[in-house]
Amino acid sequence: MELFTPQQIKNLNELELLVYQYIIEHPNTVPFMRIRELAAEAHVSTTTVLHFCKKVGCDGYAQFKWKLKEQAGSAQGSRLPDTLGELQNFLWKVGTPEYDAALDEAAGMIARAERVFLVGIGNSGSIAEYGARYLSNLGKFALGVTDPFYPITVTPNTTIAAVILSVSGETKQVLHLARQLKEKNAGLIAITCSDQSSAAKLSDITLPYYSSVHRVTTESYDLTSQMPALYLLEALARRVYNRLLE
User: 113 lies in a domain?
Assistant: First the structure.
């Protein structure tokens, strides 16, 4: 059974998300750590770690470590599932009135902004650059930010909107940039797997797609489908374009 399903991540509280963040960044180290070591690295209590283990379907820390080690060991030879089922589920959720309203609200935020940033690194960085180009092609200039050390400089009283792209919603470098933008009173829109992630909680609007996170090889490369993120960016850009015509 896969660890860290979207529903499990959604049910984590703020402290448990710190444990999750550390684990996904160190998947090959955690199986060899004692519970006190993991708690210290994640800056939480051992009780929080145990609660985290329960929420991801394990009886205790020992079973969790075994499952994590087994998953990491078998990842290189595991087959990736077809994305059709996930896409169908995503498109069904996007078609709800609540999601449609969130898309409209996000499009309005971008249309009103004087400066627009799309932030992401890794695979999400490539999507951020594509989204910025797509928006610019439709008449709303946007800048893709894929460098975690990029200096965010804007003139005072400039209205800013930023789209935060992160599969897990827990990437430290992306969260650092998001906080910088937040300090400049930017409106933040998170496009991420979970509406309970750190990126989602930091943002004003969240557009979650609830896809399963897929990683293979011992290097834990991210192979999570980016098609939901692409769809959301194009849908946002088209709604922004229509607003600019009004």
Answer: yes
Q: Residue written as tokens 């989204």?
A: 131
| Residue at 86 is within a domain | no
Question: Does one domain contain both 13 and 71?
Answer: yes
Classify residue 9: in a domain, yes or no: yes
Q: Give the per-residue pLDDT at 156.
A: 85
Q: What are the residues whose beta carbons fall under 8 Å from the beta carbon of 41, sequence distance 6 or more?
A: 22, 26, 33
Q: What are 11-43's pLDDT values in tens digits?
A: 888 899 889 878 877 877 898 899 999 999 999
SS (H, E, C) 78-90: CCCCCCHHHHHHH
Residue 42 token pair:
């994640």
User: Total structural domains in the chain?
Assistant: 2
Three-state DSSP state, 161: strand
Residue 114 and residue 62 share a domain:
no
CB contact burial 53-79 (16+ within 10 A = b; e otherwise)? bebbebeebeebbebbeebbeebeeee
Angle between helices 35-42 and 46-55 (to 10 degrees): 100
Could you tell me if residue 53 is inside a domain?
Answer: yes
Strand intervals (E) in 106-245:
115-119, 143-145, 160-165, 187-192, 205-208, 215-216, 221-222
List alpha helices for 138-245, DSSP H: 172-183, 198-202, 227-245
